[in-house]
Amino acid sequence: MPDARYAVAAILVAAAVTWSLRALPFAALAPLRASVTVRYLSTRMPAGVMVILVVYCLRDLPVTQTRALAPLAALTVTAGLHLWRRNALLSILAGTAVHVALASTVLAR
After folding, report:
1. What are the tens digits of pLDDT across the range 31-67?
2. Helical (H) or strand (E) element with 105
3. Which residues, other chains included, contact 18 with Cβ-Cβ below 8 Å and sequence gap of 6+?
4. Structure pTM?
């Protein structure tokens, strides 16, 4: 059985490592707040991530089959509603509802 000094030292080392790992992101981000690159990426990344997600989700979609209608209709509704209303929550919910409705009822056959 380890002695008390060893156990206390192990606890202190674990606490120091845990504290350091939690403080490190804040210390690393402080100089980046004024960075022009970070500001540019913060405005461009959301659209880029969405494009990557759409391409990833639709890459293996067989557009000649009937089962492709649900995702394509949902994508059309989501994009159209977002361009019209500029409300991300509304367009995501409507696109999801269209996809679920078409995939589970009409096109499930």
Report:
1. 888 888 888 988 889 888 989 989 998 999 998 888 8
2. none
3. none
4. 0.60
DSSP string computed for 21-76: HHHHHHHHHTGGGG-HHHHHHHHHHHHHHHHHHHHHHHTT--TTSGGGHHHHHHHH
What contacts 68, CB < 8 A, 6 or more positions away? Answer: 61, 62
Q: Position 22: which residue type?
A: R
Would you say the C-alpha torsion 103, 107, 98, 49 has a positive or negative sign?
Answer: positive
CA 13/CA 55 separation, integer angstroms: 46
CA distance 71 to 69: 6
**Per-residue pLDDT tens digits for 72-92:** 999 999 999 999 999 989 999
Give me the count of residues in the chain: 109
